[in-house]
Automatic annotation (TrEMBL):
Gene3D superfamilies linked to this entry: 2.80.10.50
Species: Collybiopsis confluens
Lineage of the organism: Eukaryota, Fungi, Dikarya, Basidiomycota, Agaricomycotina
Record protein name field: Serine protease inhibitor
Classification via InterPro entries: Inhibitor_I66
Pfam families for this protein: Inhibitor_I66
Entry GO MF terms: serine-type endopeptidase inhibitor activity
Length: 153
């Protein structure tokens, strides 16, 4: 299994960059992380190996966490010192080079993306954190919305 070393990376789902949107309120509340439209400014992530998992920090150094919102969990960047989620990053060799699934080290819920249909992200484009029902096959087959390209910046 391919493992990532600590460093800066770009994260994409299909051809769409994953990041915070450049327009946000100025509060210290957690900030949503989205699948942005193709051509949006791509910003590098800091991926830090911590024990058997990773801490993923969005541009600006804000670590990320799964936070409940409207009955589901979504990915947010934390600005106020809250405890980040520890993530597992697993290579999906059957899908291709530099392709991974990202899931919570605690409960195994996956990052799941939805392709943007508008210039500005909407709640539908926020990265959702959820369980996947997978067929019992080896190697596992993941839906495309749960597979992310992670490449050095």
């Amino acid at each position: 299994m391919d493992t990532l070393s600590s460093g800066t990376y770009f994260i994409r789902n299909l051809r769409f960059p994953v990041s915070r949107f450049h327009i946000e309120d100025k509060s210290l509340n957690p900030k949503a992380v989205y699948t942005l439209p193709e051509g949006a400014e791509e910003q590098p992530w800091n991926i830090e190996r911590v024990g058997d998992g990773y801490i993923l920090s969005n541009p600006g150094g804000a670590p990320t966490a799964a936070i409940p919102h409207k009955g589901q969990e979504y990915l947010f960047a934390l600005l106020n010192g809250e405890r980040p989620t520890k993530w597992k990053i697993e290579s999906v060799i059957s899908a291709g080079f530099s392709l991974y699934v990202i899931k919570s080290a605690d409960d195994g819920k996956f990052w799941v993306s939805s392709a943007p249909e508008h210039k500005n992200p909407t709640e539908e484009n926020q990265i959702e954190i959820k369980r996947l029902i997978l067929q019992p096959v080896e190697p596992p087959r993941y839906p495309p919305e749960a597979v992310f390209e992670i490449v050095r910046s």
